[in-house]
Amino acid sequence: MECKRYFLINHLSKIFVLLILFATSCKINPAGGQINMGIVTNIKTVDLQTGTIFDNKNDTVIISKLGDIILYRKSIQSIKYNKNAFKDGQIQVNNDPKMIESSAIFHRFYIYKKDQETGKSYEFQDKAYVIKQFSVDTLLLDDPILKGGNADFDENSILVSKSDIGNGYIRETYTYKPVPSANYPDTTFLTFDKNWKSRMDYTLSQNIDKVRGIKLVQVSSIFNVVPKNKSSLGVEIPNRIIDVKIFEPNLSKAELNEINQVYQKFKLEKK
Questions:
Q1: Residue among 217, 211, 171 at smallest CA distance from 198
Q2: CB 143, CB 13: distance < 8 Å
Q3: Phi and psi (nearest 5°) for 112?
Q4: What whole-number distance in Å separates Cα of residue 170 and Cα of residue 214?
Q5: What is the pLDDT of residues 46-85, one digit of tens each?
Q6: Which phi and psi (to 5°) does residue 168 adopt?
Q7: What is the pTM of this model?
C-alpha cells in the first residue's frame, strides 16, 4: 500500500530494486477490450539504520491496458497520528495502533499512453477528481515493481529443491552461501505456473521464464532473525519477508466502473 510517508516508499523501492520484480496476470473484458492484471505484495522489512519495522500486508496494485493506454491503480493509505506518535518534537512513523488517530484508504490512478513521457494521475477527493501530471520515468523509478521483467538468477544462489505443489504449480527453493550482505535473503522460493495464459506483455523475469519455459508467478524471499551479537544495529533484527505474487483479478462491477471512468476522462482530455 502506497502511503503518505515518502521516505518509506523510497526505502522499499531500494529493496525492490534488488529483486527487480514486475508482475503479470490478465483478464480480458470482452466489452471494452481491457486486459487487467494484479500484483499483491506482502512486505515485512526493517530499516537497517533505525531498526523500525514496517509490515505491509496484502498490498495490491491493479494494472490495466486498453489499446495503447496503460493504467496503474494504487491503494493510498492516509494516516493521521495522535499525540502518542510525537517524541521530543518528532513524529515516530510506524504501524503502532496506539499512535494512530485515524486512517483511510483511497485509490490513485496513474494513466498514460505507451511511449509517452508524461501521464495524468487521478484521485477522487471531495466529490471531484484531483488531476496532476506525472513523469512516467519517475514513476517507474520510484516504484520499480511497476517496471518490467529483469529479475534473474543470482550467482550466489543455490537450488536446493524443486517440487510439484499441485494445480500446475512448481516451486523451486534457493539458499545463499554465503549470504553476501544483510540485503540478501536467507531463502527464496520461486513459484511457476505451468498453465499460465497471459496476453499482457509484462513479466516477473524475462530470462527465468525463458530458461524454465513456464511462467514465474511468485517470488518469496525470507530473511531470518539476526541475533543481537551479529546485528550492526546492536539489537536483534526480527525475521523479514518480501513476497510478490501475480494474479488474475476478479474485479467488482464498481471497480471496473471506476477504472472505466478514468479511461474515459483521460481520453476526453487528450482530444
A1: 217
A2: yes
A3: -160, 160
A4: 9
A5: 776 666 777 777 789 999 999 999 999 998 877 788 877 7
A6: 85, 10
A7: 0.76
- Rounded to the nearest angstrom, the gap between the alpha carbon of residue 186 and the centroid of all alpha carbons in its chain is 21
Among 15, 77, 5, smallest CA distance to 43 is for 15
**Pick from 118, 117, 78, 121: nearest CA to 100:** 78
- The contacts of residue 141 (CB under 8 Å, 6+ apart) are 147
Would you state the cell numbers that stand for residue 203, as one nine-digit string?
A: 513479466
Residues (pLDDT < 70) of the chain are: 1-32, 48-51, 92-95, 148-150, 179-180, 182, 198, 271
Question: Residue 135 pairs with which residues in a beta bridge?
Answer: 118
C-alpha distance from residue 183 to each of 49, 80, 149, 154, 180 (Å)? 13, 31, 20, 13, 8
Angle, alpha carbons 209-111-270 (nearest 5°) = 135
In the chain, where are the structural domains located? 2-270
SS3 244: strand
